[in-house]
Amino acid sequence: MTGGRRDVDDVMSALAMQHRDLETILTGLDGEQWKRPTRCPGWDVADVVLHLAQTDEMAIASLEDRMSEFMTGRVGGEAPATVDDGAAIMVARERGRPAGVLFERWRAGSDRLQQGLQQADGHRRVQWVAGQLSVRTLATTRLAEAWIHTGDVAGAVGVDVKPDGRLRHLVRLAWRTLPYAYAREGMTLHGPVAFELTGPSGQHWSFVPDRAPATVVRGEGAQLCLVAARRAIPSDTGLTAEGVDAETVLALVRTYA
Question: Tell me, what DSSP letter sits at residue 127?
């Protein structure tokens, strides 16, 4: 087994677990719970599940080399200024579908996505909203999205979700994409960054550059994931940053496009 294939398989196992977590929550919801507001401004549970279904379908289109066609069909002639604007347009255009229909659509799409990722070469480059990326990175972004929105749904309906080791994939994604996170804000890192974090089970998660880091982030991996998902404010966590980019790294780190 090649390294790329093994990496994708590891991420895929985590993605499958994340989808099962969300499916378990959704299976137990009544009609009223689907209408509860989430921590995504203006979105209820149904909107969040619709968004996940749409973006899983987008990832399938990416794997099948029809990303441009997909976006034209979903966004139409509108030209969203940001990725978030595009997501809002897509949800608004399909809002109001019955909960049962949304659930089955998301479940069918997630199954199809997992099959597509399992069959793909982890090193192959595909088109995504922020440019080209590897299949392995696409799989990790889908894991990050599923984890973020599982938390959104769980919080809305009062379900407690415990973090586990699969978050290491999200931490790695956040670390590797720091240059992109800075670039989208018109900024540049002043030097390499290291993450020295503690996982949910107490394990040490170390992500270090090839040369001496100019900035080091320390704290809990789960908190880093929440900050990178814009679900926690850095000052409300125990995360710390030291070095030349200490003032900006936790403000800009992210795990989504």
Answer: E
205-240 as b/e: b if 16+ CB within 10 A: bebeeeeebbbbbebbbbbbbbbbbeebebeebebe
CA distance 89 to 84: 9
pTM of the model: 0.93
pLDDT in tens for each of the 257 residues of the chain?
Answer: 444 556 678 899 999 999 999 999 999 999 999 999 999 999 999 999 999 999 999 999 999 999 988 888 877 656 666 788 889 999 999 999 999 999 999 999 999 999 999 999 989 999 998 789 999 999 999 999 999 999 999 999 999 999 999 999 999 999 999 999 999 999 999 999 999 999 999 999 999 999 999 999 999 999 999 999 999 999 999 999 999 999 999 999 999 87
Q: How far apart are CA 12 and CA 139, in angstroms?
A: 7
And the tokens for 32?
A: 């009223």
Could you tell me the CATH superfamily of domain 167-252? SCP2 sterol-binding domain (3.30.1050.10)
Under DSSP, the state recorded for 35 is: G
- CATH: 3.40.50.300, 1.20.120.450, 3.40.50.1000, 1.10.3720.10. Which one for 3-157? 1.20.120.450
Q: Are strands 215-220 and 193-198 parallel, antiparallel or unpaired?
A: parallel
User: Which residue type is seen at 118?
Assistant: Q
Grouping H, G, I as helix, E, B as strand and the rest as coil, residue 190 is: coil
